Amino acid sequence: MKAVVYEKFGSADVLELKEVEKPTPKDYELLVKVHATSVNALDIIFRSGAVLLFGLTKLMAGFKKPKVKILGFDVSGEVESVGKKVTKFKEGDLIYGALKKAGANAEYVCIPEKNAAIKPANMSHEEAAAVPDTGCTALHGLRDKVTIQEGERVLIYGASGGVGTYAIQIARLFTPEVTAVCSTDKVSNAQSLGAKEVIDYTKEDFTKNGQTYDIIFDAVGRKKISYSKCKNSLNENGIFVTVDLESVAFKQIRNKRIKSYMAPVTTEKLDFLREQIEAGKIKSIVEKVFPLRQLADAHRYYEKGHLKGKVVINVQD
Hints:
With 317 residues, this protein is of the alpha/beta class. It has 2 domains: 2-131 and 284-314, Medium-chain alcohol dehydrogenases, catalytic domain (Quinone Oxidoreductase, Chain A, domain 1, Alpha-Beta Complex), CATH 3.90.180.10; 134-260, Rossmann fold (3-Layer(aba) Sandwich), CATH 3.40.50.720. It is 24% helix and 26% strand. It has 9 helices and 15 strands. Strands 3, 4, 5, 6, 7, 14 and 15 form a 7-stranded mixed sheet that branches. The protein has a 6-stranded parallel sheet with strand order 10-9-8-11-12-13. Helix 4 packs across helix 5. The radius of gyration is 19 Å and the shape is globular. 46% of the residues are buried.
């Protein structure tokens, strides 16, 4: 089968399209013909060999050379066969999900049954492949980490990216009081996703406008915003939740008003998202689609930043 591999850490130039051996599913795995995948921050981190998350990224990606030579975590495709202990899926099922150890930048991949679900019927594979990692990250942060309540005032910082676009929509499932923060060219996009108010950060600093919120959700990370800067914009019992584990200093870990996390992709979360997608309450924003052979170009495009949604890879092009 064809796959894009990398033998060493570095720029997007290290990515090469090659013929590799087709995988065989283990007892609890599905062998999936991959129709589409997407580019996530973790792909860039792994490929570059960056040391982040207190060294955890190097432990996962490898130290001197890549541990897993095929990147890609999100999967949307068709089940070709199942392991002998799989009970929830069968050959021919259209599924979406995410891998723990990467490998989706290939024509076939094995994915654990517990990390997959039936694909939303009203989405293309390209749209579905945009959901698992970023959709589950937004869902976990808002529903599970801080338990968003009806009527709460929520601000989404970085509302135009992969996590942010889903965060707006997921927050709207619980409360109409959703404020999005993004740049000028993305204001209309945030409004179309359901944000009641949109703040253009190039024109206004939300931390200085006197407004307060029950939840401030940092969907960007990379130390673009911090609790110390946002604390005066939180209500008395307000919570700052961020996707960036490293932005929370050790001395802040015991602060109950700060939450950072990593979000597992599970069947339960994917089923929840599918129900909302099929009900027309959540959609994917796909900015650009690349064929698998142009994965290096997709990485370069992603690294430019300021995306409107997700960068997706069509594997079967």
